[in-house]
Amino acid sequence: MPYLTTIGFDADDTLWHHERYFVAAKARFVELLAGYGEPEMVGSRLHDTEIANVRDYGFGVKSFTLSMVETAVSLTKGTISAAVIGEIIELGRAMLTHPVDPFPGVRETLETLKSTHRLLVVTRGDLFDQERKLTASGLLPFFDEIEIVSDKTRPIYERIFTRHGDGPQRAMMIGNSMRADVVPAIAAGAWGVHVPSELVWSLDLADDPADSQRFRRLPDVAAVLPLVEEIG
Ligand SMILES: [Mg+2]
After folding, report:
1. Is the pLDDT confidence value at 200 over 90?
2. Domain check: are 79 and 115 in the same one?
3. Tens digits of per-residue pLDDT, 9-20?
4. How many angstroms is it from 20 CA to the middle of ligand 1?
5. Ion ligand 1, residue ranges at CB < 5 A
6. Is the domain of 171 the same as that of 202?
7. What is the mean pLDDT of the chain?
8. Within this chain, do residues 222 and 126 fall inside the same structural domain, yes or no?
9. Which of 71, 95, 119 is the last residue of a domain?
10. What spacing in Å lies between the alpha carbon of 111 and ligand 1's midpoint?
């Protein structure tokens, strides 16, 4: 089996918390729209808008903010006040400034792996926001390359692991999203390591791959060290 030279890490909810800020913003949004529908209905309308808008706006906070505005306008049949729209926009803006604290063990793990492997970040989301978080996290020096992509698909992983490594066969992708980090990386020929997060967005769910030879599920990022040693 070819040895491992390149390791890709997802960023949000793999290296630091992120989904919790979406969950909090959604809760506040539901409160703001309380006069126009039951919390469950408002939440599900926002969810549907969000999923539909990924096609046009991609992933990230800006896309989510537009989805909140669109949902508010449509739920209130255009009668939402400019003041509430302003609050929604502020809700989105606040998400772009949250603190970025790496999960316990992440820094030490990257420090160890850096001496033996090429380390990449592969993340979706807004370019500006992802760059800010990487800088704020203090983890930037550990990575050889940063790839901020519009989506995470098999061809994207093939391209990234070929461009920055020795091809997918000698690469591993680690992340909290089965659908974006694990399944397409394995389809590309890489190892796919799932590190489940406390909170997960519905669009990040997927079944475990049927061919599980290169699939692992680990409790945290630090648990990658013994696996990398085992693979060699
Ligand atoms: Mg993630």
Report:
1. no
2. no
3. 999 999 999 999
4. 12
5. 10, 12-13, 176-177
6. yes
7. 95
8. yes
9. 95
10. 21
Cα of 12 vs centre of ligand 1, distance in Å, is 4
Q: What domain range includes position 226?
A: 6-16+100-231
What are the Cα distances from residue 7, in Å, to 76, 165, 190?
Answer: 47, 9, 10
How much distance in Å is there from the Cα of 80 to the middle of ligand 1? 33
pLDDT band at 144 (very low <50, low <70, confident <90, very high): very high
pLDDT above 70 for 203: yes
Is the pTM higher than 0.85? The answer reads yes
Task: Write the DSSP symbol of residue 22.
Answer: H
The number of beta carbons lying within 10 Å of the beta carbon of residue 155 is 11
- Distance from Cα 78 to the centre of ligand 1, integer Å: 34
In degrees and rounded to multiples of 5, residue 194 shows phi and psi of -95, 120
CA 193 from centroid of its chain's CA atoms: 14
Taking a C-beta distance cutoff of 8 angstroms, is the pair 122, 12 a contact? no
Distance 87 CA to ligand 1 centre (A): 27
Rounded to a whole number of angstroms, the distance between the first and last alpha carbons of the chain is: 9
Extract the tokens encoding 100.
């970025």
Rounded-to-integer distance, Cα 144 and Cα 164, Å: 9
Residue 88 sits in the same domain as residue 172: no
Is the domain of 33 the same as that of 81?
Answer: yes
11 Cα to the center of ligand 1, angstroms: 6
Instruction: Identify the CA nearest to 44 among candidates 67, 21, 60, 63.
Output: 67
Domain total in the chain: 2
